[in-house]
């Protein structure tokens, strides 16, 4: 049966009081049993579309045009009562953060039950309980009374998300909208959940819209892909075709920005950033950042071009773009690595760390040399952040040695001498929290200058501008405040601040995890440049295995406070020895090999 | 709490989609503090509040200069309604109500401002230190604050007045002392949230001395809730100071003081209400004014934090 | 962004960080803490009144000091003994209920205050019973009908009332009811202190009304704020997206979570009432402990001042304790982690 269950045509959603469009001209369809991946970076409007399928919008937004047809009937014209019956019963929603989306004061059994009750499913209490049992076993959760009596905070992230899935599938809906359901989970749990989603959709013939920013994730779960940029759908087509040769420059660049775990492809970021609602240009929105842009593209928004019956795109140069394969085999610039004469920079020996009464790090040994990047990979709770904090002196409860150029360092940053403090700099994960919102960029970068050098005003300003330029920001940023900058720009400022101290070692703690994929790639490129040009050593903490191929030479894999495997990136990723590493590699989603 | 959700107007490249809100305009602007004040000024309530406060401060400050009679002269029989010789009638002794009213605001104002400022400084210092020290030091400090907090403000003041007597300096000190723990609690709460943020840790990694972190990193980030608290405290100070004078433990007769006047003229309320009504109205409007300013500031704050233009 | 998964990465519930002694232990600890607080308060009360440098007796009697009176006061308050002994005796008295004798009329403090405590208690209770449900209702409605006329009007009234000192509200009510249009309520209580107040209810209306007007704005404001936050929360949105009826969304998902902060504030406001009662009783010459305290302060009647201060502080501490315990019990998250 190929009639689409869900059809969206010309959907437009606006901001309520400014009437600027969040999304517009959105048209697509989904058939029963199919998973359509809706891909976009932040601000692209993908979540907005997801909510529209339930006839709902967040506060401050409203539907201003178009149709959403469920089996031919436009739900946007329905009365609130009818919509209420639709939600959860015919079209259901799986939220991004289940720990926030489940009532903390209600037992989960009750929350499951009320979905069934609200739609009068089953007709009797017994039928409903049976259904709950059924659902729980389908999502691989226990259905006993003890479990159902628990409160949300007594479940782990993975369990909560599976409860959310059970709630969504409970009333046997026809359509499911999944809004980045695995973003808050770690890799292993994520792969379980993705598998469950796939199986349930196929088993029940449900049409699914899977909203995500993570291309690797969507590659493993979707059949077709729709790519969003700045509120417009720029490409729509079968997954394999898009990955092989996309027809829109943005799709292409987005794929190129995804770290490739096999290490064959170069990682490329996209300069600039996407225009927010109300600030979108006249012609094609991507033109300011596009290498194919010409006058026509800058003046006129592209219409729809059909590459094939199932593959459509909005670009004036679609044919050209399509003709090039998406991923050229890149020359991986591997100009890094140790020089014979270098002396060791950082050595961690026999590190044991504690957090209150628990023993969180066991016998950790790591070495970093100048011009070398050592990645520390692990899932949450593995201790990798604790390790980074011990090295830099933020976490004081540890024993063992942290040696900087052979000299043992004190446990607390404050007790260390100025030179040692200067040489090791730390870059935090969240660019939103690592810059003081009350200081200007200039003041932020000048802070290490003030502490480590005796420069006069003018010299300090010159050095600050130098640091900014090194991270590809101009002097115009000096007087701006952090909240005027994007996430990527803020992270660059954080790096500039570190550079102003003229360090020898940079400790990067998940510095790209809070950023969009394209921005992430750009930051990684920057760090690689700095490593080469300034001879810095890098200790790069991450959970993203694919990323380390691009940036690191050596890797240490951590689990539960121990290093389970260490060695060169090539050897660990290509021929892993430890079971944990093997499992991690197999659980990490990646784009379909080309 | 996913802080990416409160990202300014969708400009961030966070991996989590921000709430749909308009982007903050990218014009270069001054510090967030000035921004908050400007935003607050746009609100109707703040303007009304400022107007009220301005008028009453004007009366309090310049009143004595324009008063028709002196505050102690007898201009007629007691409790005479408005008429010849006394525009607003006379008080319980026969003095001119209007003149006493015009002169009665200074004491209330000066005492409450002093008490507020003192309470704020001490409270903020304590709160900051408690938040940054954490651990046992924090516990000790806050437990001692709890002890002072165990007294309703007015009982505490009365307790000390009972032995030392109605001295004005005592009034200021005790009112300030009752404000300090409440301010400390607020400052500590706000500071705790800031202390966890990475830029404070970044400063620690760089090796900034503690006091510099407190003053340079933490304090500037709690000015917003502090501004609101300051105006709230002023509101309560005025109320407290006036109440204490009303009870007879503030300024002593024959001084002209709004609180005192209300008590003095209570008995003849039914015959000559103005001796009570005027000062009561003044105190009321003044406190409403400061509270409106506080509310305006707090609304502007929410807007600044969320990056929306909702008023 | 990858936040660490709730709990560990495999499916185990998070480990509890609290003492494994349960709720009773927690309450016991809070209770002991409260006693300790009262102990320190007693030191302050005693210190502020009797232990200050200088001659307490002279300070009390002021101009009326004659050698005989001074001696009498000294004897009554044991001022000739060392301070620590005085404190011990006094504290012992407090604990056993013997608060000494009033200096003004020589009656035993406890019997003197007995009926007044009942009167004030009745006043506070009446005000609480009316204002708490009223404010919770107003706050919730304000959140539900946010920014509509009802909400705007109540918000403005709340702002005004919250700002006004209680005595201004009281005096304002007097001006309104007893003088101008509505002359049916008495401005001043003429009942004797020994009559239980419920025998002459008309005298309690205005004082209660004043307290209600003073307290309601705070609680309703917090309730409104908390409900707004809850109504905008992810889990309320999710409940709507599951297709639940709005009524159910509000009653089962929004209210139980929204009310939690309001409970803390309510307890604090009740405690605040204990202080507000002082001024309000004075305004209406209501025969309760507030009036007694003010009188005692004017007359420097130390035993009464000490007794009342301890009483009021004790009520405060007890209510704070209640607030803490109630908050813990109502929030399932905190409750289960105590097991």
Describe this structure in words.
The complex is a heterotrimer of chains A (594), B (311) and C (339). Chain A is 35% helix and 23% strand. In chain A, helix 5 crosses helix 7. Chain A is of the alpha/beta class and 594 residues long. The model of chain A has no long low-confidence stretch (mean pLDDT 89). The longest helix of chain A is centred in the N-terminal third of the chain and has 18 residues. Chain B is mostly helical and 311 residues long. In chain B, helix 4 runs antiparallel to helix 9 and helix 7 packs antiparallel against helix 9. Chain B is elongated. Helices cover 73% and strands 0% of the residues of chain C. Chain C has 339 residues and is an all-alpha fold. The chains are: A alpha/beta (594), B mainly alpha (311), C mainly alpha (339). Chains in contact: A-B, A-C, B-C. Chains A and B meet through helix 1, helix 16, helix 18 and helix 19 of A and helix 8 and helix 9 of B.
Q: Could you write a compact summary of the structure shown?
A:
Chain A contains 22 helices and 22 strands. With 594 residues, chain A is an alpha/beta fold.
List the helices and strands and how they pair.
The complex is a heterotrimer of chains A (594), B (311) and C (339).
Chain A: E1 4-15, E2 21-31, E3 35-39, H1 46-52, E4 61-70, E5 73-74, H2 80-86, E6 91-94, H3 98-101, H4 108-118, H5 125-138, H6 145-148, H7 157-169, E7 175-179, H8 187-204, E8 207-212, H9 215-221, E9 224-229, E10 232-238, H10 239-244, H11 249-256, H12 295-299, E11 305-306, E12 312-313, H13 318-323, E13 346-355, E14 358-368, E15 373-378, H14 384-392, E16 398-404, E17 407-408, H15 418-423, E18 424-427, H16 441-452, H17 457-470, H18 487-500, E19 505-509, H19 517-534, E20 537-542, H20 545-551, E21 554-559, E22 562-568, H21 569-574, H22 579-587
Parallel strand pairs in A: 3-8, 3-9, 6-7, 7-8, 15-20, 15-21, 18-19, 19-20
Antiparallel strand pairs in A: 1-2, 1-4, 4-5, 9-10, 10-12, 11-12, 13-14, 13-16, 16-17, 21-22
Chain B: H1 32-42, H2 44-66, H3 97-103, H4 105-133, H5 135-149, H6 153-164, H7 168-195, H8 198-206, H9 210-247, H10 258-264, H11 274-306
Helix pairs in contact in B: 1-11, 2-3, 2-4, 2-11, 4-5, 4-7, 4-9, 5-7, 6-7, 7-9, 8-9, 9-10, 9-11, 10-11
Chain C: H1 22-49, H2 56-61, H3 67-76, H4 83-96, H5 109-144, H6 149-163, H7 166-179, H8 202-231, H9 234-241, H10 246-284, H11 289-299, H12 302-330, H13 332-337
Helix pairs in contact in C: 1-12, 5-6, 5-8, 5-10, 6-8, 7-8, 7-10, 8-10, 9-10, 10-11, 10-12, 11-12
